[in-house]
Amino acid sequence: MFPIRDDNPTRRFSLVTILLILANALVFLWELSLGGGEALDSFYFHFGFVPGVLTGTSAPPSGTLSPYFLTVLTSMFVHGGWAHLLGNMLYLWIFGNNVEDAFGHGKFLLFYLLGGVVAALVQLLSEPSSTVPTIGASGAIAAVMGAYFYLYPRAHIQTLVFFIFITTIRVPAWIFLGLWFVMQLFDLTTGNAEGVAVAAHVGGFLFGLLAAWLLSRRRPREPEYMYYG
């Protein structure tokens, strides 16, 4: 299943979500300007997050950021190709605008960045000696998805389905996001997703769920008209 859009309206302009998408796009244009090869590999090692470097099991790449922990933040804006970028940005737009609407601009930005940091640290715990750069916004976006799961379970996601023929169906958010999370857990426990930071996805989602629960205790829940049946 591949999400296209949701039917959950927002009440305020999604400024931070749009700026995050723009920032990711600009960094990707920077990557394209490098032309691939060793220059691009060096970019990934320079701005990507290598768990083994932070745990001290491997030496930092030449010319890397200092302090090295900064790469936890920069890695959120680096992507490995068009599909990686566009897929992440689609998920960020579908789920991010509503979570920003619920949290407010400032809290959403802080939440997004913290979600990415937590996701990266969970990935580090799962592979503390890895020398492979971890890149992409998916850990932070997983946090956004976890928050959406808690805040808007009855919203509907218009989903593209590839089964014999291509069609679209409307799926309740709690089902779509719940299945997504179960798939990440399955891949994490079976090791079926080589090259994908599924531990970061799981950690980010759980952080988003917890953060939404904590923040929602300080404000009224969204009114029922926010959901469409």
Break the fold down into its secondary structure elements and pairings.
Layout: E1 2-6, H1 15-33, H2 37-47, H3 51-55, H4 71-74, H5 82-103, H6 105-126, H7 138-151, E2 156-163, E3 165-172, H8 173-190, H9 198-216
Antiparallel strand pairs: 1-2, 2-3
Helix pairs in contact: 1-5, 5-6, 5-7, 6-7, 6-9, 7-8, 7-9, 8-9
User: How much helix is in the residues?
Assistant: 55-70%
- Provide the β-strand percentage band: 5-15%
Gap from first CA to last CA: 20 Å
Lateral arrangement of strands in the main beta sheet: 1-2-3
Helix segment count?
9
Structural class: mainly alpha
Count all strands and give the number. 3
Largest sheet: 3 strands, antiparallel
What's the SSE pattern?
EHHHHHHHEEHH
Q: Based on CA inertia axes, which overall geometry fits?
A: globular
Indicate the radius of gyration in whole angstroms.
Answer: 18 Å
Average pLDDT metric:
90
Molecular structure report:
This protein is mostly helical and 229 residues long. It is 59% helix and 9% strand. The protein is built from 9 helices and 3 strands, in the order βαααααααββαα. It has helices spanning 15-33, 37-47, 51-55, 71-74, 82-103, 105-126, 138-151, 173-190, 198-216; strands at 2-6, 156-163, 165-172. It has a 3-stranded antiparallel sheet. Strand 2 and strand 3 form a beta hairpin. Helix 1 runs antiparallel to helix 5 and helix 8 (173-190) packs across helix 9 (198-216). The chain is globular, with a radius of gyration of 18 Å. It starts with a strand and ends in a 13-residue tail after the last helix. The relative contact order is 0.17. Mean pLDDT is 90; it is low at 223-229.
